[in-house]
Amino acid sequence: MENFTPLSASIGGLLIGSAxxxxxxxxxxxxxxxxxxxxxxxxxxxxxGWRWMFLGxxxxxxxxxxxxxxxxxxGVTGMxxxxxxxxxxxxxxxxxxxxxxxxGHGVCGLARFSLRxxxxxxxxxxxxxVTVFVVRHALGG
Amino acid sequence: MRQADLxxxxxxxxxxxxxxxxxxxxxxxxxKVLAFLDVAGxxxxxLALVMxxxxxxxxxxxxxxxxxxxxxxxxxxxxxxxQSLDPRLLTGAxxxxxxWGLAGFCPGPAVAALGxxxxxxWLFVFGLLVGGWVAxxxxxxx
Lengths: 141, 142
Description:
The structure holds two protein chains of two kinds. In chain A, about 70% of the residues lie in helices and about 0% in strands. Chain A is an all-alpha fold. Chain A has one domain (about 5-140). In chain A, helix 2 (about 35-40) packs across helix 3 (about 50-70) and helix 5 (about 100-110) crosses helix 6. Chain A is globular, with a radius of gyration of 17 Å. The chains are: A mainly alpha, B mainly alpha. Chains A and B meet through helix 1, helix 2, helix 3, helix 4 and helix 5 of A and helix 1, helix 2, helix 3, helix 4 and helix 5 of B.
């Protein structure tokens, strides 16, 4: 546990929660990133402008924070390109099929006490942990 | 200024705050995420605190906000309508978890890290868009 960073994790979480609350309070929208991305790109017959603005803010906010503080491993998986693309395909397919990701189900859905979000969050947490276990320990990766 | 324009600024501000939070919490570092998921190895529980702290805000805030008749800048709230658990939800969540465990990226941090100067977020988001597009072609029976 030498890499345990409870303070920065908690502060980051408070900021993420505040951002989700801000979007719901002002725009009445759920801050679910997978849904915002697919809605921005594909439309679904719903407004797209706010989605692009949110995603633009996401990139700019992160960039400013990265410039302000050292985080050398930001964005680095250490995996091969094909594996990263495969992971992206699975996450894109899965979050679309499952109507949400860590933010939509985990941060927003749980706050609304949604049974669907609770089931989804437990499922993707478990699947993620099992995957890491298989890759790192069972296969000895 | 028109309400529709104000909504764009509100979305930009919320997105920026979200992006700062992702970097501060180190969700944008896939190695940190994988260390959180590696419960059988050198487990780093930090990221549990990210979701915990976020919920510490959203649980009471959503309760108050959703008690309003409408959001500040729109006529009504836009909330998910589905209530029931179905195979699509659980299959999708499981596939998402597998992809998350492979590379350590979930959608928010991957998009946020597009400006990090690394190639991985771009490769991941490319896959994300293609995978989402394919899943969108599957007809839903509900």
